[in-house]
Amino acid sequence: MRSRLDLSDGVAVVTGASSGIGRALAVVLAERGCDLALVGRDLDGLAETARQCGAVSVSQHELDVTDVDGVAALPQAVLDAHGRATVLVNNAGRSIVGRAHEVSDDELRWLFDVNFFAVAALTRAFLPVLLAQPQASIANMSSMFGLLAPAEQAAYVATKFAVRGWSESLRHELDHTGVAVTVIHPGGVKTDIAKASRVAAAADPGKAATSTERFEESVLRLAPERAAETIARAIERRRPRVLVGADVRLADLLQRAAPGRYWAALRAQARKLTADG
Fold it and tell me: Which of the residues are catalytic?
């Protein structure tokens, strides 16, 4: 059994750190004494996150995670600022509103670029840095929708299942090294991810807006600070996966109990979240 990771003597790289879970997790890691490399597209948001992180050493890195050259250059920028990295949190992500037949190939590729290919690219870029440490961790953000697949979420579900599968295989590859891999499955965390969703060009914008509003009100309830505390504990304990929230723990049990039939149990609740409900 691997020993706990000492975050008080670490440097964590956190993507999507401008707001939401990324910001909350950065603050929780800082409270444990972990230095931080904050990564995001919103410089004002990064500056506010840095302000909330107190007295630890913090660097800020403006980056769109789909920028191939920017991702390749990031490890050296972190090394220049901190000398090392011991934790990589691939948190940045987006969502899209639209049924499977409404999301175009280009829109699906965009979503995979953000939610999956950026995770793989950042992990490859930082892996030599992490392997140079006695102990290190990679934490990749999947979702409740990386465990089960509700209707009208096919594109997002595909990216989050991909993150889960890729991360689990990576964990097995790194089993005899000092680098642990944790897959994070948050449930309904109260962030702006739904509000910031891209609407597929072929989707009805009115129905999309109504569905997004209902989803935000009915599902996104867990405070980011509580989610961040759960995630930080899982990284410390080098757990292979972490279920964040009572809703995702229930979803996990339901999927395990009835892997081919769980949607029948969830359909009525899901109808309440759709514009046609």
Answer: 156
